[in-house]
Amino acid sequence: AGSVLPIEFDPERSALNEDQKRAARAANARLPEKQRAVLAMREVAELSYEDIAGALEMNANAVAQLISRARLNFFKQLRAASVVIPPLDEAGQRAIELAVARQDGRIEQDVLAWLEQHLRENEASRINVEAMHESTLIYRAIGPVAVLAALRDEVIAIAAESVGYEAVTG
User: Fold this and answer.
1) How far is CA 36 from CA 22, 25, 39, 50, in A?
2) Which of 10, 35, 48, 52 lies in the 20 to 30 Å Cα band around 159?
3) Cα distance between residue 42 and residue 48, in whole Å
4) pLDDT (tens digit per residue) in 47-61
5) What is the pLDDT of residues 28-37, one digit of tens each?
6) Can you tell me whether residue 72 is helix, strand or coil?
7) How many angstroms separate the Cα of 106 from the Cα of each of 19, 65, 134, 140?
8) pLDDT tens for each residue of 74-87
9) Does residue 163 contact residue 46 with C-beta atoms inside 8 Å?
10) What are the percentages of helix, strand and coil residues in the chain, rounded to 5?
11) Is the Cβ–Cβ distance between 118 and 125 less than 8 Å?
12) Close Cβ partners of 115 (under 8 Å, ≥ 6 residues apart)
């Protein structure tokens, strides 16, 4: 229930039409560069938080928070005209951060119960968490070429090297 299926195993979402892909690429392009970088490194290159932290000279907790904000921001950019995402209060922000940790298999058991209870009781947090998960699926569906095209050369080189490719930058 807490994990997100890779897009290729989720046929309902894997068949994004060209308009949806264009909208997703445009949403990605509107993200701040650092958010684009962490999403590409996490979702496309599948780097660990620690690897991303090292590449961007940040700590892993800061990377986790940045990924959380980037996923939600991507979704907000993508759905700005059609979906209203409720604002986050302090508990809602904690729920998003824990949901990201759960999605990435990094959640501690002692807080998992709090998260599950909070999501059962708080509709706004539940909507935000669902939005974050949905944005991840859509992001993965737009493809690595579109994602990587929006990044600076040095970030592309780091991501490529981490998955065993030699990046050609210009």
Assistant:
1) 16, 11, 5, 17
2) 10
3) 7
4) 889 999 998 889 988
5) 889 998 999 8
6) helix
7) 34, 13, 19, 20
8) 888 887 755 567 77
9) yes
10) 70, 0, 30
11) yes
12) 95, 98, 99, 102, 107
